[in-house]
Amino acid sequence: MLDIRLIREQSDFVKSRLTARGGGDETKIDELLQIDAERRKNETALQQLSAERNKLSKEIGAKRSRGEVADDLEARVRKIGDEMIDLTSRTNELEGKQKDLLLRIPNLPHGNAPLGKDAGANSVVRSWGEKPKLNGKVLDHVALGTKLKLFDLERAAKLSGSGFICFTGAGAKLERALINFMLDLHAREHGYLEVSPPFLVRRDCMIGTTQLPKFEEDMYGLENGELFLAPTAEVPVTNLYREEILAVVDLPKKFVAYTPCFRREAGSAGRETRGIIRVHQFDKIELVKIATPEDSYDEHEKLTADAERILQLLGLHYRVIELCTGDLGFGSAKTYDIEVWSPGQNDYLEVSSCSNFEDFQARRMNLRYKDADGKNRFCHTLNGSGVALPRLFAALIESGQQEDGSIRLPEILLPYFGEAKIDGHR
User: Fold this and answer.
1) Is residue 38 annotated as part of the catalytic site, yes or no?
2) Kind of pairing between the strands at 253-262 and 193-195
3) Where in the sequence is the domain holding 64, given as residue range(s)?
4) 414 near 420, Cβ under 8 Å?
5) How large is the C-alpha radius of gyration of the chain?
6) 31 among known catalytic residues
7) Is residue 40 annotated as part of the catalytic site, yes or no?
8) In a domain, 110, yes or no
9) Interval 38-74: pLDDT, tens
10) Is 278 annotated as catalytic?
11) Active-site position among 53, 391, 398, 399
C-alpha cells in the first residue's frame, strides 16, 4: 500500500510512476485525494465540535451549580451531538473508500526498472550454462512422464478435474527428492530458517501480501471468504510478524518454506495448459526476507542468486530477466524472473520470480522495525521461489533424457533419490 502522505505531497510523481506501469491506475489518484481531503476536513470539524461540546458542558455544569437555567446551552449540546453522529458516519464511509482505493493501487516501479508496456520490453540480465545437446528425437515431459509412468494426468482429472497432477512411482519420489534438496540447500548453505506454515490463511494475510482484493477470483476461498488455501508460502511466511515491531539488529530475517500452492488461474484457459506446466495445485519452495530499506536491494540480489544456485547445481541452463514497468506484479517495485530452458517446449519456463516490494506489503500488514534512533519504520519485504515445481520437474526430465529412453539425473540428487537415472524398470 502506498503512503498517503507521499500521494498528497508528490501526486505528480506518483501519477508518472503509475503511468509507467500502464493499466490506468494513475486516474485513481485524483479521486483518492478528493476523498482524503473531505475525510480530513470532516475530522477537523469533528475535533472542533468535540471541543465546543466540552466547553459548553462545563458552562452547563457551572450554571447548574449556581441554580441557573441552561436550556439553551443543553439544546446546543444535543444539536452538536447529532451533527457529530452524522459527521462520524460520513467520515467512516470516506475512510473505508480511501482504504479500498489504496488497496487497489499498485506499487510504484523502482526508478531503474526498464520502461515498457509488456513482457516484450523485459531485458535479459544474464544467462548460465548451455542448452543440452540431445541425440535422437526430443520428447516433451508429457511423453516422458507417460512412458516412464512418472505421473497420471487422467486419474488426477478423475479425482479433481483438469489442471491437477498425480505423481506416481519414480515421479513422486523425484518430486519429493527435489523438495528436500532445495530445503536443505537454502537452510544449510544459504542461512534461511526453515518454516512449515499452515496451508490455510486468513483474509487479512492475503490482503497483506497483495493477493486481495485485486486477485480474489484467482484464489480458493473458504468460510465465506475469511479463509483461503495458500496460493504461495509467501502469504503465511511474510505475515509471520504482521502487526509487530522488530529490532533492527534482528534484520534481515530469512525464511524458507515448502507448501503446496493453490490457484484457480482464472482467465488462463489455453495458456500452457498441456501437461504439468500450468496447474491449479503445485509444490513450491519459497524464500522470504524482511529487511531494512537500506539493505533490501542488496538482499534482493542475494535472494535471486540463492534461487539461481538450485538450477546451477542441477546443471540446467537458465536466464535471468528483469521485468519492465508494464510487466511488474501488482505489489513489486523490482522483479527478476528466472527462466529455465525446456527442451521439450523449445522455450524457457519461469520457475522463480524474485521481487522487492519495498514497504508496500509492510504497510498493509503494519510490519515495522525500530531503527538505531528508536524510530519505528516500515520494513521492506522480499520473496522469490527457490524454486517452483513442477516446471522444474518438466525441464529436468526433458534435459536428462537419453537415447535409450531413460532419464539421467544430476549427481547432486543421488543422496535424495538414491539412483542416478530413471529407466522405467521399477
Assistant:
1) no
2) parallel
3) 4-104
4) yes
5) 27
6) no
7) no
8) no
9) 999 999 999 999 999 999 999 999 999 999 988 999 9
10) yes
11) 391
